[in-house]
Amino acid sequence: YQQVGLVRRRRQQVKRQLRAMATMRRNGRSRILPLAAAFLAAHATSFSCSAFHLQSTPATKIRLAETAAVAVDNTARRKCGYQTASGRWEQRRELAELQVGEKLMGRKVDGCDLLDGKTGPKVFFECGVGRIDPQGRWHIVNGMLRLGRRGARKSVTAKRVQRLADKDVDLYVTRIDTATGMLEVSTSEEVAEEAAQERKKVSASSLKEGDELVGTVVRVEDYGVFVDVGANRLGLLHIQKVADLFQKYIKKSEGLEDCGLERGAQITVAVLSNEKKRLFLDFTTSTKKEAEKEKLKEQEEEKIQKEEEEKIAETTAEDAYDIAADEAAAWAAYGAGDDADEDGVADAADWEAFAAASDAYDEDDDIEDALGIGSY
Q: Which tens digits make up the pLDDT trace of 54-66?
């Protein structure tokens, strides 16, 4: 009986010390004691009379904090099970260990349907998942499944809920929030894969001016193209940047597509500015240098082609001059009267030669004779 009375007095002393710690906490004098106080409150009944003797010294406070941390760590190792549809008990998985896109087996929880939610109807599933609070206690985390947008027909929603009831359903993780303990799932593996890809994207706020990225053109507008650079925000490549690169006028969306910036095109860009949730892009320095080299090459080719055309034009002009000179000489010889006499008048000998030539065979005369018109 004396030993029991001693234990009771020690417990009362612990309670008084805990109240003193709480007072010190309210006064802002200690940052370590709240954890020790929580530990002592949970385990005060298990201490014997010779376990410890509390004293208001810094060393005692540090020892209490270390002891509390060890106790919380041991508590976190405790198991928390759930019963499957087959009646077998299994260990719950911690929420922080899950990954987006992972497959789970779930069963709809009755009486927890939220069919009139502000963001649409939802139902909840027991997926064998839980989370551990700072005190080491397990909390059940049910997977939330969205059944559509707000305003959907209630009859359609009720049929979908009925099809999911009283059976095991294959679910895929689409969203995890360890801060709030929220788990969102989907019955579609494709949706989960898209969510996994979205999760891999970097934050647009982490991008800095000058960062070079490889992106994909996802939309073409009259004022520029929107590029997906792997961030949670699209970047804009303005049409003026394209005009500066090609050094020519770009006619709205048609001109952008003619320059190779159609939807799905892969391009390398650099961050021009990233302010007020607006991401502006520009071509990289290497791309600009390559475009400048190609422009100089085109100008050189145009210059060579122009010189060749000028040479061809000069050669044609010289040939035309030679032909004109030959024709002039021929006409001069004709005008000189090589086939006539010196006076340029045909004499009797010329006429006799002409008549002799007329007596030669003529096919036309035979045809006219055959038709009976020759005599005429």
A: 344 444 444 545 5
Q: What pTM did the predictor assign? A: 0.42
**224 has a pLDDT exceeding 90:** yes
CA distances from 39 to 32, 100, 106, 108, 128 (A): 12, 35, 36, 37, 28
Q: Where residue 130 falls among pLDDT bands split at 50, 70, 90?
A: very high
Torsional sign, CA 128, 129, 133, 139: negative
Q: To which residue do tokens 């939802």 refer?
A: 122
Contact 35, 68 (CB under 8 A): yes
- Asked if residue 313 has pLDDT above 90, the reply is no
Rg (CA), the chain: 49
pLDDT band at 46 (very low <50, low <70, confident <90, very high): very low
Structure tokens at 124: 């909840």
Beta bridge mates, 106: 169
Please say if the pLDDT value at position 49 is more than 60: no
